[in-house]
């Protein structure tokens, strides 16, 4: 497989958000001349509001409103001066009250994002290391990545995985002064909790361990003086902890607060903290409202408010327990998440609930993996028991309807979230939804009729019937597990036994950094010196790491096309589970086949692959006639760099090779493989080249310098397809001769020349190097892949490692 361009993360997020916006569940505008918190106006209707982060409802408290109004009258809408010079007169009381709440020194920041950007680069020194929980808030991750520029190592663990965390701590303990673990107290999507008590125990074992907690979703509704979830567990703040809380969300005002018990560090952060120094200060209205809220937090009233919310949370939990809805995490927080699995199911479910009179949030990528889309529900003091009960009844009724509308079922949702079904008397079904179509699956191409397969997919590359037989033999019974692939075949027919869809897949071991940048792969390869399978995963992919081309046959005019696609994806999900794969990859799609919305709705993220290149030889005579069709500029390039050096070379076509020749071919291939960390894959087994030498459909275009006619300096490994497609599959180069003889360009030219000689109709030139191939007359087409992962850990880890 040729190098895939690194995905533009923002492009992917834009596509997902645009899809959700078009479905009417994102980027909405609230309506109405007032807002109570209990209801919200959307699309000319008043809906019960189950999407707020103002869990205690303090943003509607008259004391905060009056304080804000009075501050505006006295001090204006803003205090336009850096806080480093002078603070608004209202700041002193706010800082005093919040300090009293926490019993420790505090720093008030404009918001948590700017706070993280100011604190993290100041608190973490060049001698330290950072370990991120992979679900810690984006604002923390973004601020931490800045430290890559100072060579501070940034690492990541799977969510709440303390065993993994301890392994990381051990790896840094002899190299770094402090090891910072950064996590949320309450995670904003699923509402699950950080294991704060266990983390404290771990810090007692490893004194280097420090903590950076973002507890903005744990604020106010729990803890002494409403100081949050983390402090409710710890009781007191030790000097190895930095704690972020919020003055917005549940606190009811605006801004954020850093709490630091280490007086030396507090002084450093207070004196100069990047954005803390240069950013504008909070507006007078926000300062006054926050002070009014702090007074409530310091009074016994805060515990009454907490109890009122707790009763609503417990009531909602009790009602959910009586249903079969897939609640993703059972806990005490006011945040709940009902899984829908696929985005299109989430869109349908949210729209159904809005029509019933309930507003809820949609959880989508990148906050959650695409296939872990769901409905995020928040409970607040605004919500009354009658509408809480009404919401549960509406969800219980509409959830199966949404599944039915989007052609899925509960078992797929439970499987996507790795949940155990509560329906013990009705075990989860793995079978495909009812269909009149005929589904045929096989584990070997030997079980499929050659004529049938070649008629569907035989013309596309090294995966006609003979090519797949060759690959099955090559990638089996090898000593290394990365060289053993499982092959799967799927053909779907209509009732008249007319094929609608056909494809083949491989389940094989991929390096997780296969698509990462070179710097990230270099770092990971250093760790693979001691653990060759570090950061590797089983992947179920259409096609294989060896093949390129249109791996999916689909009759786009057939009325059952969408039904066949749905069956294919459900089959892949079942195979993914039984084969223990971590990712599904659908490869090599062009934009001409409009499947983008369908795949995205099914939980796949699109990435752009390199351009695919091909040459049509149907109207070509001989090589001279072919050359004459090139532009004058490209003919000059050909004469100078290719035809000009051709007389200095010996070109030989080998159908079978001696042992010495096979050794040279393997070495040349290895040169190219090792030189391409941009596409970091496992190498192919030596057996591959031996099998090629024995196979009638494979041949080798080889190049030798006339000055040393036994020294092979370039090779193109070519497959002759049943439909007269010539496939230059892989290349090998001696880089010390690359510029002298323009080896790669010479091999491309010799490939075209050879294809014409044997009367090929088409050359599948493969991916990458489109600029070079276009010079020799290749047409170029954009290609895309669609990826579906079980979680975002690898994606986010690569993002951290690539941010230097």
TrEMBL record:
Judging by the UniProt lineage, the source's domain of life is Bacteria
Query: What PANTHER family does the annotation carry?
Result: CLASS II AMINOTRANSFERASE/8-AMINO-7-OXONONANOATE SYNTHASE (PTHR13693), LD36009P (PTHR13693:SF3)
Asked if the keyword Transferase belongs to this entry, the reply reads: yes
Cofactor needs: pyridoxal 5'-phosphate
- Pfam short name (any one): Aminotran_1_2
Q: In which organism is this protein found? A: Aequorivita antarctica
Query: Residues in domain Aminotransferase class I/classII large?
Result: 49-393
Molecular function terms from GO: pyridoxal phosphate binding; transaminase activity
Q: Which UniProt keywords apply?
A: Aminotransferase, Transferase
* InterPro entries named among the record's database cross-references: Acyl_CoA_acyltransferase, Aminotransferase_I/II_large, AON_synthase_class-II, PyrdxlP-dep_Trfase, PyrdxlP-dep_Trfase_major, PyrdxlP-dep_Trfase_small
- Can you say what this protein is called? Aminotransferase class I/II-fold pyridoxal phosphate-dependent enzyme
């Amino acid at each position: 497989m040729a190098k895939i361009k690194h995905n533009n993360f923002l492009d992917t997020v834009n596509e997902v958000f645009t899809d959700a916006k078009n479905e009417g569940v994102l980027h909405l505008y609230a309506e109405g001349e007032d807002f109570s918190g209990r209801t919200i106006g959307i699309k000319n209707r008043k809906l019960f509001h189950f999407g707020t982060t103002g869990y205690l409802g303090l943003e509607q408290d008259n004391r905060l409103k009056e304080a804000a109004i009075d501050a505006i009258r006295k001090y204006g809408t803003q205090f336009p001066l850096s806080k480093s010079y002078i603070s608004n007169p209202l700041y002193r009381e706010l800082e005093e009250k919040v300090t009293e709440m926490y019993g420790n020194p505090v720093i008030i920041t404009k918001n948590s994002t700017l706070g993280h950007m100011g604190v993290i680069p100041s608190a973490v020194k060049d001698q330290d290391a950072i370990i991120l929980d992979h679900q810690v808030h984006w604002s923390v991750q973004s601020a931490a990545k800045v430290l890559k520029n100072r060579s501070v190592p940034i690492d990541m663990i799977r969510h709440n995985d303390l065993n993994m965390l301890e392994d990381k701590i051990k790896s840094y303990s002899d190299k770094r002064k402090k090891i910072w673990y950064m996590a949320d107290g309450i995670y904003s999507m699923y509402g699950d909790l950080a294991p704060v008590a266990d983390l404290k125990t771990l810090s007692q074992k490893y004194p280097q361990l420090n903590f950076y907690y973002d507890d903005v979703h744990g604020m106010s509704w729990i803890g002494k003086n409403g100081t949050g979830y983390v402090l409710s567990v710890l009781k007191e703040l030790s000097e190895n902890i930095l704690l972020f809380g919020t003055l917005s969300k549940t606190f009811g005002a605006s801004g954020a607060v850093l709490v630091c018990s280490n007086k030396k560090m507090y002084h450093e952060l207070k004196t100069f903290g990047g954005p803390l120094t240069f950013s504008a200060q909070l507006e007078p209205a926000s300062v006054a409202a926050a002070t009014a809220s702090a007074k409530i937090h310091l009074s016994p009233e805060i515990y009454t408010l907490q109890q009122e919310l707790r009763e609503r949370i417990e009531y909602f939990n009790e009602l959910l327990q009586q249903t079969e809805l897939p609640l993703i995490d059972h806990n005490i927080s006011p945040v709940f998440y009902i899984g829908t699995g696929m985005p299109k199911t989430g869109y349908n479910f949210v729209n159904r609930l809005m029509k019933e009179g309930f507003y809820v949030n949609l959880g989508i990528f990148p906050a959650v993996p695409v296939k872990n889309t769901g409905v995020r529900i928040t409970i607040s003091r605004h919500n009354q028991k009658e509408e809480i009960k009404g919401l549960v009844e509406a969800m219980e009724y509409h959830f199966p309807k949404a599944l039915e509308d989007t052609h899925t079922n509960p078992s797929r949702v439970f499987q996507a979230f790795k949940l155990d079904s509560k329906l013990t008397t009705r075990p989860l079904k793995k079978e495909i939804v009812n269909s009149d179509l005929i589904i045929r699956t096989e584990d070997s191409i030997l079980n499929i009729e050659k004529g049938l397969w070649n008629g569907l997919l035989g013309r596309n590359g090294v995966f006609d019937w003979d090519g797949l037989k060759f690959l099955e033999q090559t990638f089996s019974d090898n000593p290394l597990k990365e060289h053993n692939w499982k092959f799967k075949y799927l053909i779907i027919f209509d009732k008249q036994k007319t094929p609608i869809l056909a494809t083949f897949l491989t389940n094989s071991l991929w390096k997780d950094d296969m698509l990462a940048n070179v710097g990230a792969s270099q770092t990971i390869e250093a760790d693979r010196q001691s653990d060759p399978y570090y950061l590797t995963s089983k992947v179920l992919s259409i096609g294989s790491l060896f093949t390129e081309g249109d791996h999916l046959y689909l009759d786009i005019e057939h009325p059952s096309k969408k039904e066949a696609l749905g069956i294919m994806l459900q089959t892949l999900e079942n195979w993914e589970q039984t084969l223990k794969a971590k990712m599904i990859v659908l490869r090599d799609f062009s934009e001409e086949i409009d499947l983008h919305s369908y795949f995205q709705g099914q939980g796949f993220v699109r990435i752009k692959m390199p351009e695919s290149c091909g040459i049509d030889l149907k109207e070509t005579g001989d090589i001279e006639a072919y050359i004459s069709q090139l532009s004058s500029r490209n003919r000059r390039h050909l004469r100078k760099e290719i035809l000009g050096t051709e007389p200095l070379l010996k070109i030989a076509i080998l159908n079978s090779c001696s042992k010495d020749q096979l050794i040279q071919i393997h070495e040349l291939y290895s040169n190219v493989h090792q030189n391409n960390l941009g596409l970091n894959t496992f190498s192919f087994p030596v057996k591959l080249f031996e099998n090629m030498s024995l196979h009638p459909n494979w041949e080798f275009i080889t190049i030798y310098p006339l000055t040393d006619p036994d020294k092979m300096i370039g090779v193109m490994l070519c497959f002759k397809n049943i439909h007269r497609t010539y496939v230059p599959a892989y290349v090998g180069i001696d880089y010390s001769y690359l510029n002298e003889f323009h080896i790669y360009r010479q091999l491309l030219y010799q490939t075209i020349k050879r294809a014409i000689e044997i009367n090929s109709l088409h050359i599948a030139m493969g991916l990458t190097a489109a600029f070079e191939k276009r010079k020799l007359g290749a047409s170029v087409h954009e290609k895309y892949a669609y990826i579906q992962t079980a979680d975002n850990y690898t994606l986010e880890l690569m993002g951290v490692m690539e941010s230097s």
